[in-house]
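Good morning C.,

I know you're traveling, so I'll keep this short. The sequence:
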Amino acid sequence: MTRAFLRLAGLALLGAALVPIVTVACGKQAFTPRSFLELGGLGVVLLAMVRFRAGIRRVETRVDANARAQAAFLDALPLRHVDLGIVGAAALSLFLELAVIRWQGTVFEFFAFYKNFSLLCCFVGLGLGYALAGSDRILLGSTIPLLGVQFGLLIGLRFGPIPWLSCLRILPFREQLNMGLPGDATLSQAITIYFFLSVVFLLTVLTFFPVGQVCGRLMARREKLRAYGLNLLGSLAGVTLMIGLSWLWMPPVVWFALCSFGLLLFYLRTQSAVLMGMAATTAALVVLAWPVTPLWKTIYSPYQSIELSLGRRGLLVIRAAGHYYQRVYDLARSNLNVAADPALRRTRDYYELPYRIHGTPHDVAIVGSGTGNDVAAALRVGADHVEAIEIDPAILMAGWANHPEHPYDDPRVNAVVNDARSFLRTTDNHYDMVVYGLLDSHTLLSHASSVRLDSFVYTVEGFREARARLKRGGILSLSFSVLSPELGRKIYLMLQAAFDGRPPVCIAGTYDGSVIFLEARDEHLVLHGRLLEETGFKDNTSVYADPELRADVSTDDWPFFYMVRRVYPLSYVMMAGLMLALTFLVTANFVAARPQFSQLPFFLLGAGFMLVETKGITELGLTFGNSWQVIGVVIAGILVMAFLANWVVQRFRIERPLVPYVLLLASLGVGWFIAWSGGFPSTPLGRLETTIVLTSPVFFSGVVFSTLLGSRGQITGIMAVNSLGAMGGGLLEYNSMYFGFRALYLMAMALYSVALVWELAPSRTRQYPLPHAA
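The tokens, ready to paste straight into the viewer:
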């Protein structure tokens, strides 16, 4: 096993070394004769390194001896400490998983577009580790060095002096538009991107492989249901820790320092092993903490990573997820620069235009208030009260501390840290104007479900809820940087559907390529031409009213705002195929001890659970708000339900899964019907009902899993197959991009039905033990 692991690790390290060369060779608009020469040179380097085996053999001998001693150390752990070890290992695995997923997205923003990529890499590594937990070699000493290699690779490519990054910021996905990143990659650029992703896949899988081994090894020393319950408790602790660090705005160096400390607690207790672990930890953390952007201050808020710097005239500029997000303007009446600078004058007209159309408003709600430009505009025109809703407290604080007009200090302003959609669903207040700022975080996803957070703001249902918050005569104003005429048409159609078929007024501004879409609550909005003449803006309503522009509206069931048309995501299928091929490559290298797939029900349960979890996170995040804390609490709640299910199976000695299967399928059917009929109202009772409906399948699924776990084979093999099943469910989740999120219910029901049929087959039912005598 050591040789197979080192062979893959060597391949990953070689790939990491070749990524910059491949990027230079292929990161062009098309192949050239020089590109083929460069690739030929890569082949020569590869052959030379493959031939260099003597050094690898010496490393293998030393690593193999350490791995054997590590396995013996875990086996010698006193039984009274095994329970704590299981909890600690499970907490470490999930905490490390969340840390890697979030960190990768902060360094390279395009990881946010590759839905579930990081999560599935972790599943493959943990699953393979569980499968090989019974080996006499535990390769724990490789985890921290492999983390360090990944840190160096991603940070070096992202912030290195050679312009490699431009190629790695092109997305080969043709089905959707991309905010901040160019799309429509050429063949050579697509090869570069997929090669880079393959290297990251191998590094991540091999990083998590030993962690899964440790957890599975310790779980095998306890009774299965008890071990699984302890694993769930540990996972809950890991999620709670990440929620706490996110709430405290801790940076990645703190996350991975804690991960490394946790790994060292399981290290072999020899001087050389501990010293090597500490040296690897120090090197990895130095790479991670190196100040690669000294002119930008990086903050890891509970919602995202943002970078702050000073731009023109010393005013604040913000980047989010690596690309431009927003800037602060001083547009006060007392600022003489505005009158002298036509660009600043047009910018002030842009922010104040909706208010000039409505007239002086009394009450204004601004969703996506950001650093305060929209808030300052509302105050300049004389608004009596402004609700400023911003999901990211770091951006809110940056605006409070740095905006020259100090809008958040004004007593007329009430700043609210909340998700825009959640605020609109739950507030009882009504407003003269609801203003959508330039809120967009296309690259920002929840850390487990990969749901595009702001997409739920831009749906027909979301606009209807905003309309319901308007007073009679009120106006909705939505500003958006329209990437294509088709996207503008999509917004046009969604607003038209939300306002009883009345088309919006569309005004093309001159700020950040944005278009202002305006709708009145009760009647068609009339725009006076004189106002456009004064501001120099253009009425583009006829452009987006053109029926020749094809677009499909976004809904809560299909919230993929940047997919202009509802087409099947074939580009994602290609990426899924790549991940399956890489998974086969990794598994095939451990032929002698590969996971046994005969436990089909556990694979199906893992896939179904992943779909149910995704749907639950999506709906509950929509109900309670899409912030890191809320999503983290939702995941913690899912783990609590699974733990309760495990306790119920042990307490009541449930041995046959037929009734739990029926209840599981029934709960999924109820959930699908409620989602199809529009869901529960946004009242306290409605939110409680939503929580019950969405968590019930999790509970019954946990009962089924624990029931089968108590009567089947080794827990390590079961956990391995279950993890790989979760990966399969993650790949199936891509289908929601065409069929919608409600289809996840149907897919989960199909998976669980196949598992039930498998269990009802005569050859399977004979495996159940006889019921205990009363």
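Safe travels,
E.
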